[in-house]
Write a structure and sequence with these properties.
The complex is a heterodimer of chains A (167) and B (98). Chain A has six helices and no strands. Chain A is globular, with a radius of gyration of 21 Å. In chain B, 77% of the residues lie in helices and 0% in strands. In chain B, helix 1 runs antiparallel to helix 2 and helix 2 packs antiparallel against helix 3. Chain B is elongated. Chain B has one domain: Helix Hairpins (Orthogonal Bundle). Chain B is mainly alpha-helical and 98 residues long. The chains are: A mainly alpha (167), B mainly alpha (98). Chains A and B meet through helix 1, helix 2, helix 3, helix 4 and helix 5 of A and helix 1, helix 2 and helix 3 of B.
Chain lengths: 167, 98
């Protein structure tokens, strides 16, 4: 259904960007400050989803889908189930709060200032999947092999951990 | 869309993650905070991909897949530590030797 209101493309993009970045920061804050670890893990899933949205907005649709499926859909949900199973009561180093806050503010400022130096302009990015696949199986074949080995290691490790329960 | 604003979001997320990693005692909460920092790094990597979009995307794909496997490894260690110490408080965990 159309309301007959035409929103300029640039304005819509800015609005979506503002929503996604606000969501990322708010859920990031909740991931750190939630008392319950389950809510913290779920907030991390929302941060991952917002980041995937931002990546899609930058022109990398395939990468955003990959992030959503592999990272949010598999890794973070796995983390959430682990938190649910272990149910550890929350605990903090209270004496570290001030130092950690100062560190966080300084880190955010320095990082932003440094990254601004590498400002590359507002460039429209276009993903080229055939070029990416050629890079993965060509230039970066050794890194790809290492990645396959590391994923295989995780499978073996999961079996070892599961077998350890029976002893 | 301005890349500068993406840097700002990434810097805030990274700072939040570092705050969480320094203040929490639970190993799993520290992992969650580190994952927050990973999301910030990924945003910066993608934003910097204007130099070479295909190379940037390839590196980002590797980064996501490696982080997924890293979560698997760290969670296995956390489960084993929990079995041994009945707690995930890092101040109680003195050694990871079997």
């Amino acid at each position: 259904m159309s309301l007959g209101i035409e929103v300029p493309a640039g304005l819509a993009e800015i609005a979506v960007f503002a929503c996604l970045s606000t969501l990322a920061v708010v859920f990031g804050f909740l991931a750190v400050k939630s008392r319950d670890s389950v809510y913290a893990a779920l907030s991390l899933a929302f941060v991952g989803s917002s980041v995937a949205g931002l990546i899609a907005l930058m022109g990398f649709g395939y990468l955003a889908a990959f992030h959503l499926v592999i990272y949010v859909g598999a890794a973070v949900i796995f983390l959430t189930f682990t938190v649910l199973m272990l149910r550890e009561p929350p605990a903090e180093f209270r004496e570290m709060r001030l130092a950690a806050l100062v560190n966080a503010v300084a880190l955010a400022t320095i990082l932003y200032m440094l990254l601004r130096q590498t400002f590359l302009g507002n460039v429209e990015l276009k993903e080229n999947l055939s070029e990416v696949s050629a890079l993965i199986f060509g230039k970066y074949w050794l890194a790809f092999l290492a990645l396959v080995y590391s994923l295989a290691t995780v499978v073996i490790e999961a079996i070892v951990v599961a077998r350890g329960e029976r002893r | 869309m301005s890349v500068e604003l993406v840097y700002l979001v990434a810097a805030i997320l990274f700072a939040l993650g570092s705050y969480g990693a320094l203040t929490h005692r639970s190993a799993i909460r520290i992992l969650i905070s580190i994952e927050l920092m990973f999301n910030a790094e990924l945003l910066v990597l993608v934003a910097l991909s204007t130099v070479s979009p295909s190379s940037g995307m390839t590196l980002a794909l590797f980064m996501i897949a490696l982080t997924a496997s890293e979560i698997g490894v760290v969670i296995s260690i956390i489960v084993l530590l929990f079995r041994k110490y009945r707690s995930l408080d890092i101040s109680r965990i003195r050694s990871v030797r079997g």
